Amino acid sequence: MTQTLTALAEILEDISRRYAETFSIERDGDWFALKLQEEVGELTAAWLRATSRSRRASDDDENFQNLGDEIADVIGHALLMARHNGIDIDAAIARKWLVYQAREQQP
């Protein structure tokens, strides 16, 4: 299944909107920025656990699964923040990252 990041953001928006309605959360511009920051903090904590620099779960697989889950949260909330602000994330990725791939492929 191939999707653009913009299409994925639309799916995540529906999930996030329903979550916010269930828990009476107002998702304004500040919420998107602060929620992303919260998720980056959780990712950092998961990294510290996975690399034995903090209290760990006894199972390495569990530590790295948690790390993956937190990476997914950061990516998801970054996509939601982009969508909320009307940013074409596919174009932004192409402009900031994929331009280097195109340069390398030129003769």
Describe it:
With 107 residues, this protein is mainly α. It has one domain (5-105): MazG-like (Helix Hairpins, Orthogonal Bundle), CATH 1.10.287.1080. The protein has four helices and no strands. Helix 1 crosses helix 3 (60-84) and helix 2 (29-50) packs antiparallel against helix 3. It is flat and about 50 Å long. It holds the Pfam family PRA-PH. This is Pyrophosphatase.
Write the layout of secondary structure elements.
Elements (H helix, E strand, L loop, with lengths): L4 H18 L6 H22 L9 H25 L4 H17 L2
Protein name: Pyrophosphatase
Organism: Rhizobium puerariae
What gap, in angstroms, lies between the N and C termini? 32 Å
The whole-angstrom Rg is 17 Å
**How much strand?**
under 5%
What's the overall average pLDDT, rounded? 92
What is the correct CATH architecture? Orthogonal Bundle
Tell me the major beta sheet: none
What's the CATH C level? Mainly Alpha
Short description:
With 107 residues, the chain is an all-alpha fold. 77% of the residues lie in helices and 0% in strands.
